[in-house]
Design goal:
Helix content is 41%, strand content 10%. The chain is an alpha+beta fold. Among the domains are: 155 residues, no CATH class; 101 residues, no CATH class. It has a four-stranded antiparallel beta sheet, with helices on both faces. A hairpin with a 2-residue loop joins strand 8 and strand 9. The termini are far apart.
Length: 380
């Protein structure tokens, strides 16, 4: 049996770790230290402005998010990984262009990424432990107070765009990030120097104006926050801006020129599931809670629960073009009080559209009568 080396060649091990990461399905891997002190002031300003909205855990963790070494005592390095998730036949244009269909953020079309990345990071830690005596490691995937994007930027995986997402010159932003905290002195990678230049496409295209300044997002206006994180009523003034987006939003990524070269994922778990293909809002709103739980099994969508699912669809139904079927399905609703408030709002909007449609039809009929009368012989 080969003995475990007590003092590994850290440079060689870092190279080996990156090879293992690719074998485990990660698209890129970088290594950085734990110093995020420059981020602390920005984080505190963001919290002080209330941009975290009702995400109380953001404030309760405070500056701990910028201090990864406090999460796992003895941590010396953060191994940052990227996994691409853009599925083939994502159907962006089709879904967004048809207001009768539901739009779901592309990252949620497959299996819950938390489970996929966490399992692979754990395997990576176990492989490292075969080379290092007394290795301490802990994987994180968007599940603990870690500033994953600044860490990934320090590790050389990309730069932070004006929409606050990480951008990679060869992968755009259609990827997940994960971190493995370790207690070994691996050599670190250098950050990239690229940036967004003068481009402000993400800022000008945000449907709700949530990107209030370059690199600053007011979560309270972000559609992803409103449809996923917010547990209360969606503010009425923002509801019309959601359109048919019922879970998350991709607009700032869709317009980003860096994403023109983003690769498709090779990970089968992130492929679009059949239940998310060409689903009408009316059909989704008719799901029972049992159907919702069954059809979102293993999906990140399940985390919002049935009530918020119906709340979001009710808003989208209100935004949809007038249709008798839409009014009928809304009128049939009977259930949660919060959902009912959104249903009432949607019904009022649909009835306004019905009245406008009837008035327009009447005007069209009157125009047709006049045309016919003008064209008829005098004795007809």
């Amino acid at each position: 049996m080969t003995s475990t080396p007590q003092t590994p060649d850290w440079t060689a091990l870092a190279i080996q770790i990156k090879d293992w990461a690719k074998e485990l399905g990660f698209s890129a891997c970088g290594i950085t230290d734990t110093d995020l002190q420059p981020e602390e002031a920005r984080l505190q300003q963001w919290l002080d402005a209330g941009y975290h909205g009702s995400m109380d855990y953001m404030a309760s963790h405070g500056l701990l998010r910028a201090r990864p070494a406090e999460l796992l005592p003895g941590t010396l390095r953060v191994i940052s990984v990227r996994m691409d998730y853009l599925p083939a036949a994502a159907g962006f244009a089709t879904n967004l262009a048809d207001p009768t269909q539901a739009y779901i953020s592309r990252y949620a079309l497959g299996r819950d990424y938390h489970k996929v990345l966490r399992q692979r990071l754990k395997q990576l830690g176990e492989r490292i432990s075969t080379q290092v005596t007394g290795l301490g490691f802990r994987p994180f995937v968007d599940s603990a107070p870690v500033l994953e994007r600044p860490l990934a930027a320090k590790a050389g995986l990309g730069w932070i765009g004006k929409h606050s997402l990480l951008l990679s010159a060869d992968a755009g932003s259609w990827f997940f990030l994960g971190e493995l905290l370790v207690n070994i002195p691996l050599p670190t990678d250098q950050p990239v120097t690229q940036d967004c230049g003068n481009c402000v496409a993400c800022i000008t295209s945000c449907p709700t104006g949530a990107i209030v300044a370059p690199y600053v997002v007011d979560a309270r206006r972000c559609i992803s926050y409103l449809t996923i994180e917010l547990k209360d009523d969606i503010p009425e003034d923002l509801r019309p801006l959601l359109g048919n987006r019922i879970y998350g939003c991709d607009d700032c990524q869709l317009v980003c020129p860096v994403n023109r070269i983003a690769p498709l994922t090779q990970e089968a778990d992130f492929a679009r599931r059949p239940q998310w293909r060409n689903q009408s809002l009316v059909d989704l709103f008719s799901w029972s809670e049992a159907e919702f739980l069954h059809l979102t099994e293993g999906s990140a969508i399940r985390r919002i629960g049935y009530q918020r699912w119906q709340r979001n669809i009710a808003v989208a139904l209100g935004n949809a073009p007038y249709a008798a079927a839409v009014i009928e399905c809304l009128e049939k609703f009977s259930g949660d009080a919060m959902v009912q408030r959104h249903v009432d709002w949607a019904l009022a909007l649909q009835r306004q559209k019905a009245t406008a449609a009837a008035a327009e039809l009447s005007r069209a009929q009157q125009r047709l009568v006049r045309i016919i009368q003008v064209g008829l012989p005098r004795d007809a």
